[in-house]
Design goal:
The chain has 215 residues and is mainly alpha-helical. It is 74% helix and 0% strand. The protein has nine helices and no strands. Helix 4 runs antiparallel to helix 7.
Length: 215
């Protein structure tokens, strides 16, 4: 699960800027395209807190999101105008980013000792990111010259997304945890975490990242 999760992301994310440049996108348009990933990351906790964490099993939500996302990503390969492609990437990322929390939730609920077991599982995500990049450059590269300038990485990401979506339905049942819990707007927005700012180390961490957002 973890290997496939990051294979999907790594397959297209690194090379999509090169592809967009090859079809005439400006630097600003390419930057805006990558911004869609960040916007989706901001929105995804609302979805997790209001829907996935209260009404549906995590593995089923993840399965649907990856299948739908794979379809959207494949559809995006046929778009060559900036605005439609950027909007398609926003929709795709809105499907993908919530799954990052879902894979963690599934992992933690199925482990006896997450503190010891999770690192060994999470590292497979990093391995996947590296291997899929190597595959694009050293396996597909010799077959398809300038593969990074084509839609092949996007199509590979779409295919892997559908595979993971189907596989998700075979994962152990991970039912919602907060079905009987009344969730406030503050809980959904994560306002309670603001209390952590009282901790000096956490405050410095936040200030540094706010000062250098691209660090």
């Amino acid at each position: 699960m973890m290997f496939l999760e990051f294979s999907v992301w790594g397959a297209w994310f690194v090379t999509v800027g090169s592809y967009m440049g090859s079809i005439g996108f400006s630097g600003a348009e390419i930057g805006t395209s990558y911004l869609m990933n960040n916007i989706a990351a901001i929105l995804s906790p609302f979805f997790i807190g209001m829907v996935a964490d209260r009404y549906f099993s995590s593995e089923k939500v993840m399965g649907v999101l990856h299948i739908v996302g794979g379809g959207v990503l494949y559809f995006a390969t046929g778009l060559t105008e900036a605005t439609p492609l950027i909007l398609a990437l926003l929709i795709y990322n809105s499907c993908y980013m919530p799954t990052l929390a879902l894979v963690n939730n599934i992992s933690f609920q199925q482990m006896d000792n997450p503190g010891k077991q999770f690192p060994g599982i999470r590292v497979w995500g990093t391995i996947a990111w590296v291997l899929v990049g190597w595959m694009i450059n050293f396996v597909l590269g010799p077959i398809y010259p300038d593969v990074e300038l084509t839609t092949i990485p996007l199509k590979l990401g779409a295919a892997l997304s559908v595979v993971l979506g189907l596989y998700s339905f075979t994962l152990p049942s991970t039912p919602p945890k907060n079905t009987a819990k009344q969730t406030s707007i503050g809980d959904t927005l994560g306002l309670k975490t603001l209390k952590l700012l009282k901790d000096r180390s956490f405050l410095v961490f936040v200030l540094v990242h706010c000062s250098f957002p691209f660090h």
